[in-house]
């Protein structure tokens, strides 16, 4: 697996985590307990940091990056992902903040300085432009993204189930190592 330091800063990988050998994880990145990074993920904590919570999964081909400090953004924009989050295949997350129990659909793009509150589903292929705030408890779809409707009870429950499914899958992969 390609876990690399950047300017002397090494990623910090939590206990009981899985990072696929084809993933590239660089620099200031914190991966929480029981989380997983799947094949062909690129996660670059070089010009700012990436923080990934517990029981969170980053699926195949996703790109995680950050925004450097600048005059217009003195702290830049790190990438912060909460607990029990599912990031679908080929999603792109750039300098945004995601709360807990979120599902980001396949191919979705979430851009700088966006805040996604807890308990949100973002549909596959959605584009979340910079500086948006997605409120808790809703499904968001489209390009650009729009609030579609409130989540159902089943969808709320599925957010945790999805994260739990990837914790179990990660454990199966770890058994083979």
Automatic annotation (TrEMBL):
Superkingdom of source: Bacteria
Q: Which residues form a coiled coil?
A: none
Q: Which UniProt keywords apply?
A: Transferase
Read off the Pfam families from this record: Hexapep_2
Query: GO molecular function: any one?
Result: transferase activity
What is the protein name stated in its UniProt record?
A: Carbonic anhydrase or acetyltransferase, isoleucine patch superfamily
Q: Which organism is it from?
A: Pseudoalteromonas denitrificans DSM 6059
């Amino acid at each position: 697996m390609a876990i690399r330091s950047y300017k002397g800063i090494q990623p910090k990988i939590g206990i009981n985590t899985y990072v696929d050998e084809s993933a590239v994880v660089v620099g200031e990145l914190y991966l929480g307990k029981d989380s997983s990074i799947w094949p062909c993920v690129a996660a670059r904590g070089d010009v700012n940091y990436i923080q990934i919570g517990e029981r969170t999964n980053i699926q195949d081909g996703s790109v995680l990056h950050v925004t450097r400090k600048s005059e217009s953004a003195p702290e830049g924009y790190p990438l912060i992902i909460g607990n029990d989050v599912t990031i679908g295949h080929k999603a792109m997350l750039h300098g945004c903040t995601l709360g807990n129990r979120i599902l980001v659909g396949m191919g979705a793009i979430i851009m700088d300085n966006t805040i996604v509150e807890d308990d949100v589903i973002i549909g596959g292929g959605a584009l979340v432009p910079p500086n948006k705030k997605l409120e808790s408890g809703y499904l968001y779809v489209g390009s650009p993204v729009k609030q579609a409707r409130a989540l159902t009870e089943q969808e709320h429950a599925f957010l945790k189930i999805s994260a739990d499914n990837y914790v179990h899958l990660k454990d199966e992969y770890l058994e083979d190592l």
